[in-house]
Write a structure and sequence with these properties.
This protein is mainly α. Helices cover about 70% and strands about 0% of the residues. Helix 4 runs antiparallel to helix 6.
């Protein structure tokens, strides 16, 4: 990844949306200095941060990394409202990167991690219903084999 081109792209995107570095840093959950390092090419954003940036600017990560979007600096862009998908992705990445979860999840498959993420968001009553459902599905699968 070309840090200088990515840095230029991040700066152009931020300015075209009329965001401050403080705003973008707050959105990403980092200090302004860290975000400033991204724009100056001194640091490379993590994959999680790239996903959050793509969500903020409502572009794909592919477009962000391929640096293929031409911005019209004379056009005003409304600040996007975070979509449900970007909030969900952000919450999922926070769940995976939470130090309390990282060690527990290290030996789970991606599918198991996703199930655990959504399961953790359910009420205790809903969790019990999901367990009962999983038991029924498991028994049904073992009776067919």
């Amino acid at each position: 990844m070309d840090n200088n081109r990515l840095a230029q792209k991040l700066l152009a995107l931020r300015k075209s949306h009329q965001y401050t570095q403080d705003y973008v840093a707050s959105f990403l959950g980092v200090v302004r200095q860290t975000y400033s390092h991204y724009e100056n090419g001194l640091r490379t954003p993590s994959y999680e941060t790239l996903y959050k940036l793509a969500g903020l600017y409502q572009i794909s990560v592919d477009d962000l990394l391929h640096l293929s979007i031409e911005l019209d600096e004379n056009e005003y862009y409304d600040a996007p409202v975070p979509t449900q998908t970007s909030r969900e992705l952000s919450n999922y990445l926070d769940f995976l990167n939470n130090p309390n979860n990282k060690k527990k999840l290290q030996f789970h498959s991606d599918l198991e991690k996703e199930i655990l993420f959504y399961f953790s968001q359910l009420s205790e009553e809903d969790q019990k219903e999901m367990i009962a459902f999983a038991k029924i599905k498991a028994q049904k699968n073992t009776s067919h084999t």
